[in-house]
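Progress against Task 2.4 (sequence-to-structure conversion) is shown through the following example record, which the project officer requested during the mid-term review.
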Amino acid sequence: MKLKTFKRGVHPYGGKELTKDCAIRPLPAEDIMVYPLSQNLGAPSKAVVQKGDRVLKGQLIAEAGGFIGAPIFSSVSGTVKAIEKRLVVNGSKVDSIIIENDGLDEAVEGFGVERSLDSMTGDDIVEAVKNAGIVGLGGAGFPNYVKLSPKNKNDIDYLIINGAECEPYLTSDYRLMLERPEELLRGIQAMLKVFPNARAVIGIEDNKPEAIDIMTKIAKADDKVDVCALKTKYPQGGERQLIYAVTKRKINSKMLPADKGCIVDNVGTVFAIYEAVYKNMPLIHNIVTVTGEGVNKGANFDVPLGVDHGYVLEAAGGAKETAIKFISGGPMMGIAMGSIEVPIVKTTSSILVFEKDEVAEAVETNCIHCGRCVNACPQSLVPQLMGQAMKKENIEEFEKLGGMECIECGSCAFVCPAKIPLTQMFKLGRIKIREEKAKAAKK
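Structure tokens generated for the chain above:
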């Protein structure tokens, strides 16, 4: 079997063995639950409850703040104690709804009630996804109903399901494929009803042979669903890299996947779609991997949104005394946390704990022009020159060199022997370009 892949990329240590055999375990909610209003790409949500209100599990507590937005729902029943600013993963404080859990787990009417796909149209499915507050659970947090609403649905011929999970250490998607394959297939079938001319392809890296085997067997139940084995390489799960590997179609920063006839969704997102469509459940929980050499015992948890990272970590046995670095997400694209007392949100995929902080310990030296960053870049850019432009604060030159094509995957910084923080420089450059264009658009 020939494995499909993309050009360039890197091969970091996987770390999957730490938790790949850890079955998903349900985690109970905390006494106090925190729901930040900024949980998606786009506009923050707007609270529709106030202090003193009693809420039920699955109840809307914040509506979408705009077209590129998503509603938020309570994962417990209880009382709204406050709406105030709380610390989140990136170190900022954002408006958040604080709910005291009453432990009764009373749900809104209709929550979890089965419904038939046969009775729903494609538009009904998109509306269900919208009303459930589903965003991309692969990390970007883009409101999913927008992705499922391209200009011409009949032009979509590929529905690509991202089961690559290329970030080191993470195994939550892997466990979903092993433990809930039937539900994933039903979610895919719901999406196929939205795109009548599409075939579904589930892309899985070959370091997950059990998942490839299980999903291949499940896919035989539908002649419009296939499994594609991918070469294990980072960032194989990147949207552009996955599309190229499966279809050989190329996407750039000025295009959407739909422009090339593709819709891409992570397996976690597909599971959320299954629950929204078939069980009338909004997005109120997520599968989170707790792992790393600094963890006493790795785990995969089914976590109610709103609990603390620290609470989840303690449920896995806590961190070792030697632990010094805590990351929300993967080691390549995740966010290092100054505090673990921050809430789990829709896009939280993992809590990583390490006994070494290689980034903090790194000593930056001068570029030696070795070209390793060029060989690693999956976007065929020249990070060396882009880095020079950023050091000179020449944003215009950075953009000319293709700065907006950077996907911030971290491959260049990973291979750089001079330990130059290229990815952070490029993130800053891209932010400045967007800010300048936003200012120009207002004039």
